[in-house]
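Write out structure tokens for Basal-body rod modification protein FlgD.
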Amino acid sequence: MENNELTSQLAQISTVSGIEKLNTTLGSISGQIDNSQSLQASNLIGHGVMIPGTTILAGTGSEEGAVTTTTPFGVELQQAADKVTATITDKNGAVVRTIDIGELTAGVHSFTWDGTLTDGSTAPNGSYNVAISASNGGTQLVAQPLQFALVQGVIRGNNGNTLDLGTYGTTTLDEVRQII
């Protein structure tokens, strides 16, 4: 074997060994990042998040004259709108309230419904849906409705962390538009 061949083979062995060590180190770093992300996600337990969806829950206390409480809802706009309207419907699809929100900038915005119907009466306890329409200069815009959900846990899986939202199922951290 020639000197230069031996030197070349030693260099290749050294390179392979270095790559194996690098892979081991990267695997360790990746595991540490996963653990860190799980720890950060666990800080969301007990907090509300806004995710894509249309559900609003309404309920009143048991006391006479109790105030109706509703879960927040929201909208994500890719561009500013000069007219935004929220239409709230009951489980049968009947419109129970229309709210003129007005102008909004691009981004995520959250709102609360006071639980009153168009006629001024209090909405019955239950689940409602919201549809958002947005326009600018008469041109319809894409308006992603957002619903509120309470984070009840974090599930670690092969594809990363998912948030357990109880009756709303699960969602990924990518879907969270706002933390409340």
